[in-house]
Design a protein that fits this description.
By secondary structure, this protein is an all-alpha fold. It has eleven helices and no strands. It has helices spanning about 10-35, 50-55, 65, 80-90, 95-120, 125-135, 135-145, 150-170, 175-190, 195-210, 220-230. The radius of gyration is 19 Å and the shape is globular. The chain starts with 7 loop residues before the first helix and ends with a helix.
């Protein structure tokens, strides 16, 4: 199926929303950096050294996908490339690992803001949801505990898949759904909780149909298409 052409007015509207979201998330990220700045002085924990040992010895990024490196404890090879990238850039300086986590958190906040904008079209709801996510203790665990960054990275790719899926429902661009599937698959490789993604996509599509079906910004022709495309 060929990708649909987006009308110029839609493209301009989406660009304005995106830039506004970037500004808001930038403010949230600055606040989060202030709250978590102490993490930049933190050291590695004991279990972090297992990951450091593996990235020091393994150069092929595909090895964790083919071999059980965690002795049956779990299978989450999607995080290995980020450990490897951190190790190549920063060696054994933990501050850069935590700074990288902060950058991923900022990216997740932007994706959540975008997802909520697609679902509700409400700036206030989107902003409040993003702020709650940024300050959540559950989010902090993945940020401040390097060995538990599985949650942080799985969340990033989970949200990326969701945003692209919602964009596909609205604009029918093939590359949106293609990258959404790839991001969702990679989220599963980061942590198995991403197996819930298909249900979330379905419910999100249904919610968009019912909640935004009355939105004048969505055409009458578009709302039934959103409903049909949200079905598996």
């Amino acid at each position: 199926m060929a990708g649909a052409t987006v009308a110029p007015e839609w493209r301009d509207h989406e660009r304005r929303v995106f830039y506004r979201n970037v500004l808001y998330v930038g403010a949230v990220a600055a606040w989060a950096a202030l709250v978590y700045h102490g993490s930049l002085k933190a050291r590695f924990f004991l279990d972090d050294y297992l990951h450091l040992h593996l990235v020091e010895r393994i150069d092929n990024l595909l090895v964790p996908f083919a071999r059980d490196l965690m002795m049956g404890a779990f299978y989450r090879p999607g995080v290995f490339p980020f450990w490897k990238l951190n190790f190549m850039l920063a060696g054994l300086h933990p501050a850069w690992y935590y700074a990288f986590n902060l950058a991923v958190l900022a990216g997740s906040c932007l994706l959540l803001m975008q997802a909520m904008q697609h679902l509700t079209g409400n700036k206030g709801v989107s902003a409040f949801s993003t702020l709650l996510f940024a300050v959540s203790p559950i989010t902090a665990i993945g940020l401040l505990w390097l060995s538990n960054r599985f949650d942080l990275y799985a969340t990033f790719f989970f949200l990326l898949s969701l945003v692209l899926f919602l964009r596909y429902l609205r604009f029918r661009r093939t590359w949106d759904i293609s990258i959404s599937v790839a991001a969702g698959t990679y989220a599963f490789f980061c942590k198995e909780i991403a197996v819930t993604l298909p249900a979330v996509l379905l419910l999100s599509g249904l919610f968009m149909f019912h909640y935004r079906g009355r939105d004048p910004k969505l055409t009458r022709a578009e709302t039934p298409r959103i409903f049909l495309l949200s079905l598996p």
